[in-house]
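Incident review: delayed structure delivery

Summary: a single-chain prediction request sat in the queue longer than the usual turnaround. Root cause was a stuck worker, restarted by the on-call engineer. No data loss occurred. The affected request and its eventual output are reproduced below so the record is complete for anyone auditing the incident later.

Affected input:
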Amino acid sequence: MNEGTRFRRIARIGRGLPAILGIAGITVLGILGSGGILKLAHGETQLHGEIETQGRIQHVVLCWLREPGNEAVRRKLIETTEELADLPGVVSVTAGVPLASERPVVDDSFDVGIVFTFRDAEALAAYQVHPRHREAVETVLQPLVEKLLVYDIQPLPRLAPTE
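Output delivered after worker restart:
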């Protein structure tokens, strides 16, 4: 099994997890025992609370389809997204549908949500011009999506401990 296939399988497992885990750049495969050990997408194991996300960039994409609610179109968009998971600099990809909510602060009107985590800002910039990304935008995203919102999020620099 090549690394891209392994990663896509892991991303599919992680899709049902709460969105906050995807936004934090973590795809959890399991929590083992009471020690809070997390298994990350690329096989690293970290103790809960010690997960390093310094420099990682989250690229959040919300899509409203030209045919709202069309399940086949949703699947096509999600599958195309998962095919980009093996591009250089991509740490993880999570794609899915909104969780319905009655809370007034939650916007669940979009059809597909996508969260990419990139190694750093340079990896995001390289991804934007990568031929496979450009092809996906031109052949899948633009024909299927009516409205698109993108949020790129970077962590704040860690402050040095004070004594």
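Verification: The first strand starts at residue 31 and ends at 32.
Action items: add queue-age alerting; document worker restart procedure.
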